[in-house]
Structures are given as structure tokens and as C-alpha cells.
Amino acid sequence: MNKQMMRQARWRLATSLLCLVAGAQAMASELLISQQLLADGAVEIRYTPPAGQRELRFLDTSTEAHKRWRGTAMQAVGACTELTETGLRLREAPGCETAVLRLKQAAGKTGGYEPAQLLSDSSGVLAYSGRVAVLLPGQALRWRWLPPQGGIVIHQGRVERKPVEQLASAEQVDQVLAGGPFELQRQIGAAQFVYMGSDKGLLSLPGGNLLLDPTLDALRAERIAKVLKYTLNRLAALYGVALPRPGGVVVAVSELSGFHGDTTAGPMMRLRLPRNAETMPGLTLEQFVTHELVHWWNTGLFTPDHQRPWLHEGHAEWMARLLLREQGLLSDAELRADIETNLNNCAAVRGARPAATMKPGRAGDDVYACGMSLMLLGQAQRDAADGGRTAPLAQMAPLHSLERALDPVAFVAWADAGSPAASMRQLLQDEQQPFTAGLLARLQALGLSDAEPLRRSDQLPKGLRDQTAVSLMSALMASDCGAASVFTRPTAFHLDPDSRCKSLRVGADVQQLAGVAVLEDPVAAFAAVAASCRESRSYSVGYREGEPGRVACPEMLPVPPLSQLIRLRPDALRRLKL
User: Fold this and answer.
1) Is 363 in the same domain as 414?
2) Tens of pLDDT along 45-66?
3) Is the pTM of this model over 0.90?
């Protein structure tokens, strides 16, 4: 059986447990959760539990979920429903058989798997089930999504013009409640996107359906469609396995600055773009969309280690660069600058900490920069082992397998294949190996880079310069205030007004530290603060408004995140076959 047939067989086995029907009513032994888009752009969610069940506890009961969504965006509707911090309560009263919840702010204000992402004209919404899911022990779960009049539902990539339902058994629900793997949540529909709304802007593409925000400009729409067509076909050929069903992509335009993307099982994808296209210069759009498409393979078809997100985020980052380069879209100068920025961002964040001692998750790491750096290093090691005979994208393909999960052990085995030195194993699994020193040593041994002493801020790219400044301001604020909470503005740091500090002026904007403009010249600011502390045990702080002040120095002075930069050698791209 080839990989495509194996994948399809696995997919049929998983989805055979999920029954898709329309029009059925909630049974006595199940919870029915139905969602629909209202005319005013809000989302209505109705919960009909088995008779006698009054307490409905959300699957996600975290304080963060309540702070970001339930406490602000959700509202109980009618006299029967009470919204609590962790769930819903159906009041004891005649006729109170269904709890009703209203998402009153479904405009995509923060990103990161929000309960709902509204299109800019309120004609459609991409709903995420994870924030509204309720699981009842011993009870089956039935989801129902209703299209508006004349509209559609896009569920698991398929376009439907009638209500869509998805059923999970009581056994599956109990497995999730017992702490089963996240994949089970995806299988029972408790971690997926579903679109409900107008079919305006719907495009059918080979391998997927694309729903475009009605206010998206034609040029970006064309660019997105081109990326989808190329990348879906290329990845299917590269891995020898296509998506087992059409994918669904929903593009929403937002007044927010920046951009954000998420993918879920199905596969479904959300792309949030800023209204101002100029805020995504150059190939930012193509790189962003390609990154998200790669996720359909590395977290959809394949199984990643969700506790080590640098694996799937780094893979998506590096694959996006390779795919763009293959199309001739990235120049030598752009690619070199991009690689150097990511290598140095990773070095600045991880520093001397051994990778083997780092905690799982995203905290304290740059999963994009470090993941991309490690993918690049792994490919370079494999290139050296096979004498450079394999093309970069083909070199990356064996990293994933349908037979095993991609975890650090599998990554090390892939990266060190054919190399007796076991370089990646030592870098990632030796608790005595300082990370940045080990990374640089391996890049040097492969003839890819050298170290350059860091003496001036103009040696740093803008992002790393800001990161260096943040590290100094955060360390000083943590010493004076007990915790760091700062917001970066173009020429200053805004100090959180809710902080409690001894000397720093909370709510004010800090422009200078020890007489140096900190965001403009963080390298000099580090040196100036250190010199002032040696002389007087205090340093001056210059604010945008008001008189300057003085702050006592911390017991231990903050250290710059980098003392040297990683610079690619002139022939590095050739050595990487790029």
C-alpha cells in the first residue's frame, strides 16, 4: 500500500467515527450545540443538553479564555441562561431546555483561535469550536452549523448549502475528558473552523475552496490564489501524499495592523489580513500564505509534537523560504538577510541555555527563528553527508512520515542521518552544551558562517535592535517594579500604568536610559547604564514628557543578549544549494 492509500485509509477510519447528517434533533443521550450567523454579525450558539442536565462546563475553562473572550465577547441570552466564568447554567424553570449564547464581538480583535472571525462587511463568519465547546461525561456530542438564507457552510473544506452536522460518540467524549491526545479533540470537532455566511467571494481551486473577504483588493486576491495553486500541487508531489479532501481557506480583512493565520483539522484555514496592503511589503503575503499551507501537511496529514512547536513552526518557516526560492521570488540578498536575521534572533533568545534543559512550549523561545535555524542546520548536515546530491526540498521531505510522529528524537535521527559526528544530537540533547555556541560551531564547521563581534547598534537588523532594547528595558523595569510590562512605540517604551514601581514613572514613555536613546541605540544604552551603575549605583531615565528621573541599579546588571553576530559566508547559499 503506498503512502497516499495509507493516508486515505487512516482518514476513512478516523472519519467513520464521525457521522455527518442534517436536520436531526438532539437525542436524550447527547448534547446538541448549534451555531448560526445573525443578521447583525453576531454569532448565536444554542446548547440543548439531555433532560435534567443543567450545568454545562466549557472544554476550555482557563482564566485567559474568560478574560479574552467569555468576559467580553460572550453574552447569555434570555432568562434561561446564565454565563459563568467556566461554563453555562440552564436555570430551573418551565420551558428552559436550551441555553443560548451570543458572540457579540466577533471581529477578530486579537488572533490566535478566536471564537469567531467576522468578514469585514459582516456577511460571513469563521467560527472556531474550541472556545465554545462543552463536553458532558457519558454523553454523545452533536454539532450543527446553519447557513444563512441563500448562504453556505464550509465544513472540513466542503461547501454545503444546507445545515451540516457532526456527531461524536460518548466514548470519544469521555476519552477527551480523561486527558486524551489533542488529536481526539480534532476528531470530535472540538478544535476546528467552520464558515457560515454568504458565498460571495467563493472560488473553487484544485485541492480546495477559497472564500475571500468582499473588501479584499483584487491584486492580493490574485496573489493568494496563485500561492494556493502552486503550493498545494508542489507539496503533494514532494511528499507523495495529497490532502485527503478539499481544504477550505477563509480570508478576512481587518482594521487591525499586522496579519495572522491559523489552521485546524479538516483542513480549514483562517487568514487575517490588514486593510492597508502596504503594511505587508514585498513577498510578506506569499511567505505568510505558504507558511500556513505547509501547516496542512506538518500538523494535518503528519503528526507533530505539539509540546515542541519549534518543530512545526520552524519547518513551515524554512519550507516557505525554499518554495519561494524555487519559484525565483527571493533574491540572494533577501534570502541572506532573512537567514541571518533568524539565526541571530534565535541566538539572542536562547543564548547559552542548553536546548536539552528548555521547558516545552513557546515561553522563553522564538519558535519561528529557532525552528527555522535548526531546520536549515539539519538540511546542511544532510547535504554534507550525501555530498550535495539531493535538492533542498527533497532533502526536507524525509523529515516527515505517516508511520511516526515528528518529535525531537525523529528530528535528530533525520538531521544526523549519514553523519558519524551526531552533531544535532549533541546540540539538542546534551545538557552541558550551550546552545548558541554549539549552533555557531556547527555552522562554521559546515562552512556556512562566521562570528562578528557586536560593537554598534547599526550592525543589528531593525527587529533584533528592537529586541535588544526590549531586553534592557524589561530587565530594568523588572528590578524596579517586580515585573516587566512595557509596550514598544516608535521612539519610546510605554510603561504599563497598572504597574507598581519604586522610581520608574508608570504610564509614561521612556525614551532615554543613562542619556542614550534606548530604541535607537540599545548597544550603547547597555554600556551607558553599566557605566553609570559602576559610578553611582543609579542611572538616569529620560521621558517623552516631564523631568528626567533617577533609578537605583539592579543588584545584577542586565547582559546584552548578543556579544557577537552570526554572519553568512559569501558562498553560503551555494553550499546550501540555494
Assistant:
1) yes
2) 999 999 999 999 999 988 888 8
3) no
